[in-house]
Amino acid sequence: MLWTLVIPLKSLARAKSRLSDTADDGVRPGLALAFAQDTVAAALACPAVGDVAVVTDDALAGRELAALGARIVPDEPRGGLNAALSHAAAVVRSTRPESALAALNADLPALRPLELARVLDAAAEFPRAFLADAAEIGTTLLAAREGTELHPAFGRDSRARHRASGATELPLTEVDSVRQDVDTGEDLRAALALGVGPRTAAAAARLLIPGQ
What we know:
- The chain is 38% helix and 16% strand.
- The chain is an alpha/beta fold.
- A hairpin with a 6-residue loop joins strand 5 and strand 6.
- Helix 1 (28-44) packs parallel to helix 2 (59-68) and helix 1 (28-44) runs antiparallel to helix 8 (198-204).
- The model has no long low-confidence stretch (mean pLDDT 93).
């Protein structure tokens, strides 16, 4: 089974405000773009992924991610994360109704293609399935097989919300790169320890990060 990944990305100017302990206002947009570029590049290299659709209204991010091979879907609803994901899923399925879909966070700079393939292969066993983040509170991936609606419930306590919605939690180990999203300086240090992609590595090298 080949999956279409839907990756949401907010305006770079507003992205990653919780990284203010590590990166100032002038640096965070570049970091957010680097995270997204490394995430998309790794996703496109995954053998279980057929294509990637990024939903964003940020012009710079759209150009850079399209150059990597992603399809850019404008965030027409502008109603927040879950509305953006539902819109992008509808756009994808308007031309390919049989598509298996998975929503993936844009801030997984340590993402490994083969670990992502393991997660998607496990998700294929269920109508809807999700992977909890490293903090075991949020969600980094939500998958819906063909014929099943995505029904995203990202945001605060999304692990519990996705479980309550009937999605199956995937109890996988050794897929740390798919779990390690980056919201805080501590998250960034954890991702760097796993080994991030080249764009994030270059951006992070310009920061003074304790312990690195």
